Amino acid sequence: MSVLKPFYPRLLDKGKAKKLALVAKLLSILNAICKSGQPWQENFSHP
User: Which stretches within 1-47 are classed as H helix?
Assistant: First the structure.
């Protein structure tokens, strides 16, 4: 999951547990998907 690469180490550096860091990122992704109403796109790139 390349989406997690920048976010995950930052949470670990702040002292968060590994599972907590993964769950936090996945929840933020799910929240964004629900808000936008768009399905998950693996190869999505921001403008």
Answer: 7-13, 18-36
